[in-house]
Amino acid sequence: MIDLKITNDDIAGFCGISTRHSVNRILRGLREEHVIRTLYNKIMVLDVEYLKQFVDVKMDA
């Protein structure tokens, strides 16, 4: 569960996306694919494995 007060403009800036409209479109697509769910302005990640393919993080064991 992501419980932060953050705007779509904030997300756009953090991710290097040009506009909040692009963020809206991406979030809508993730909801339609059942990757996330939004409830009371919170984002619940339903499919972490799907999102991991877009992140390049190296973690120490």
Write structural notes for this entry.
With 61 residues, this protein is of the alpha+beta class. It has three helices and two strands; from the N terminus they run ααββα. It has a two-stranded antiparallel sheet with strand order 1-2. It starts with 7 loop residues before the first helix and ends in a 9-residue tail after the last helix. The model has no long low-confidence stretch (mean pLDDT 85).
Tell me, rounded to a whole number, the average pLDDT. Answer: 85
Shape: globular
**Spatial strand order of the main sheet:** 1-2
Q: Which value, in Å, is the CA radius of gyration?
A: 12 Å
Measured as a percent range, the helix fraction is 40-55%
Tags for this entry?
61 residues; alpha+beta; two-stranded antiparallel ribbon; 43% helix; globular
Q: SSE layout and pairings?
A:
Blueprint: H1 8-15, H2 20-32, E1 36-39, E2 42-45, H3 48-52
Antiparallel strand pairs: 1-2
Helix pairs in contact: 1-2
Summarize the structure.
The protein is α+β, with helices and mostly antiparallel strands. Helix content is 43%, strand content 13%.
